Amino acid sequence: MKKKFAFLFASLFLLGACSAGPSGGGSSNGGASGGNTQEGDTIKIGLNLELSGPVAGYGTQEKEGVELAVEKINAEGGILGKDVELVVKDNKSDSNEAATAAANLATNDGVVAIIGPATTGASKAAIPNVTKAQVPMITPSGTDDAITVSGDKVQEYVFRSCFQDSFQGVILANYADETLSAKKAVIFGDNSSDYAIGLTKAFESAYDGEIVLRENFTKNDKDFQAQLTKIKNADFDVLYLPGYYEEAGLIIKQAREMGIEQPILGADGFGDEKMIQLAGAENVSNVFYTGHFSALAPANDSVQPFIDAFKEKYGKEPSTFNALAYDAMFMVKAAIESQDAADSAAITKGLAELKDFVGVTGNITMDANHNPEKSAVVIGFTDGKESSADTVNP
């Protein structure tokens, strides 16, 4: 496993809207080094999230995580003595809307940093506008490698609190090899998604066993009987299913009802309660996915207080996406405090230099490519409930 991770991290290191004046009193555009500066009594942070549309589950959870973080920050005196004010935009699970929201937050609302979007496609769409405005953004769950590095160029204003697809793919390949002892794998992936394509490529490059069959589906498909019939007739030990919860839930349901009983592996796109609702809890056994957070495997002493506060506020257990967004907000706070300034340029510098940050999803140091170095968790399910969590360190 160490050899594979060494290879992974070695490889990892290898349009805008016209500017407008700010609409609120918290921030203004055009600091000396670009970006927005803080002038009022509050620090304005933008949220560019999928709050409606097909993947609203992710954005809604991330909004909850950020709001809990802001509540805690403001209750404890704010940042540099100023309260945090959130400016929220719904990108409607649409890439064009995400680009527009990024431009409006950075130019019209004058926020000093943006959290979101949640998904890979929307995050990529937002990059040109935050780059033009020189306002940093943190995606809590956009995992495609190309979000932070395009070609050989690091995206200066783009960061994330999650790990990237290549990391997840290698972890899942190792889990299949070493924990499940799977010698033969089937890959059933979303061929319309950069997220799934990246995960598939990483798994294929790291898996030691034989890939005996490759099948594809497309976003919004509902009936997977034809592909699953081919899969059922194959000789395999594990089914690798890179995709989001909407299709994954239906695939798991249909696979189990057809008598496909082998372990199913997926990535963090499984991490929504709707996946279990779609699949039916009775079908979600012997299912594993890479997560950034699990109460069964706390990363450090900050986890339990976070869980307690979240349950008190929302009356439910926190999810991976709640936790990633909570960390993203506290990463912004850490960046501001490290630079003793709340303008966009200072936050960008502080995020790039972030080191030994204690987050609920792990202890984070930002690498040269603006990706967090931290551990991952492979979460296992039995009857729709988390039944295991194995921490994997890079």
From TrEMBL:
Q: Which residues form the signal peptide?
A: 1-20
Tagged with keyword 4Fe-4S: no
Q: In this protein, which residues make up the domain named Leucine-binding protein? A: 42-372
Establish whether keyword Transport is in the entry.
yes
Report the superkingdom from the record.
Bacteria
Which family does this protein fall into? Belongs to the leucine-binding protein family.
Q: What is this protein called?
A: Leucine-binding protein domain-containing protein
